[in-house]
What does this fold into?
Amino acid sequence: MVFATNQTDDLYGANNLNDSAIVNELVGDSISGKTIEINQDSYDDYFNKYTGEIKKDADIKSGDVLKIANISDRGFVIDRQLTLMPNCSSDQISNGFIHLIKGSDGSIVTGLTINNTEAVLSINSNQVGYLHGIWLSDTSNNTISYNVIRIANSGGVYALPMHSSSRNNIVYNDMKTYVSSNIIMSNSHYNFISRNKIEVLSYSDMSVTNLIYFSPFAFAGRLDTALCEGCTISYNELIGFCTLPMSIIIQAVYANHENTVIANNTISKGSYGINVMGSNAQVYGNNVNGSAVGIAVNGANISVCDNTIYGSSQKIGLAVYGSEGTTGIVTRNDISYVDVEEALHVGNNLDVYGNTISVDNYGNAIAIVGNYSTVHNNKVKSSHDDAVTIYGNNDTVDNNIIITNTRGVSITTSGTDRYYNNTISNNKITSDSYGIYLKGLVYYTTISSNVIETNASVGIYKDI
It folds into this structure.
């Protein structure tokens, strides 16, 4: 059976992300300028150890290369375009940080190992700064690549915090934190975050441990808007610690993050695997395992395609909410659970087709909770709960293959709720109980051309 239309395939193909050529170009840029070795002894010749800033009389010019040898308890505040790299592959920065600030646009930070076991850098009782890993403030067009960053087991320090920093390329890094976010950002747009390995190693109810976080709250000493538009998050390995509330793998809500692309990531755990709100959001090709809510997408003109979402006992697999005046696309997703409350949660104004949904034990395969959505040409399987439930108006369930040990498609109301103008048509339903079940304040439902095989006394039951 062919599920997708040519029009949608063309749209999806045009938006499909292949970043390998882009990444190779980013990390392969030539490096020019003189080379300066910075080690524990020579640091004071170039930097103020109490502020981390470059000394006014230091002979460091834009375009120079800083090769950093083994060094501890030192910060690097960079206000010009430089390349920072290790002197040799075994060198590392211990309890130190890199801070790119205004003026550093176009810098490259590559191949460094930053290993922090403390939260604050102080020298002779003077606080130099918090021991974030690589920190971006008011800087753009930088490449952060092939770095290893380890952050202390403390709240308030981050692997890569970003304020008002755009069009940066963050690729092939390895980051780990304990009870804080790895990449946390605000007012930062069109950043490219790809092929990183990012992990959180612990959990605390008193701290936010989101791996990638568009934050509306103050962090790293500063408060900006949460809005981050046009960012691409792709081909990352993202590993959570648990599924408790304060741990989300990708948290991109609190503003309309337009044109966000989240694609081809491998995600495990988290209270949400992906939680994004924004017009024109594209979420596709992700593999999400064991998140309490696998993927949640909310916005106008959104597309959620070709994701694989699975787990054992979870809350929701995929939740999508469209917007009035547009039609969101939900297609070719593979969703499978042992137990789940709802494998696919369908909101308003969506075209949902070509998905495969399977629930082995308890839970609904599809719950339609919004209005003006069409669910068609899907393969649906459930065991102990109704396969497809409708809790909305003007919805259509058409031409699906539904296999269930209970009821195929149901519309039931509680209290004074009323549901109007839904259509159930052309479905092939194999059920142990009723194929179609209506009960309560259900009005003007169209039921037509369904093929029902059932062990119940009737295929269609109505008590309305």
The first helix runs from residue 6 to 15. The first strand starts at residue 35 and ends at 38. Helices lie at 6-15, 20-27, 43-46.
